[in-house]
Write a structure and sequence with these properties.
112 residues, alpha/beta, two-stranded parallel sheet, 4 strands, globular, Rossmann fold, 5 helices
């Protein structure tokens, strides 16, 4: 994580700060799995173990998340991103992203 040059300094610092709880959505695991199966992404075979090693906390999708993701204004078409937005809103979390459409929603953001 510390060597990932694609993350902004602020995002990297927030993620490695031991005082912050870093959540990884099951939505992200689902998207990663699909992209890996399509040959668009290469990830370690032990991805779940890596998430735990790096002290990240899994965030499961619940009914309220799913309901809000479907009710969000139709600005963003990607269902995975819509779910992340809904989870961030409901759970009052900060979403780390560089997606230019996500700031159009009422969600706390940290530029990736």
């Amino acid at each position: 994580m510390e060597k990932n040059a694609k993350l902004s300094v602020n995002a990297r610092d927030a993620i490695i700060n031991g005082k912050n709880i870093v959540f990884v959505s099951s939505d992200s695991a689902w998207e990663i799995s699909i992209k890996t199966a399509m040959g668009k992404l290469i990830v370690p075979d032990n991805l779940q173990e890596e998430i735990e090693i790096h002290r990240f906390t899994p965030l499961n999708i619940n009914f309220d998340h799913a309901k809000l993701a479907g009710e969000l204004p139709n600005i963003h078409k990607d269902p995975f991103d819509r779910m992340l937005i809904a989870q961030a809103i409901i759970e009052k979390l900060t979403l780390v992203t560089r997606d230019s459409l996500i700031p159009l929603y009422n969600v706390n953001l940290l530029k990736a």
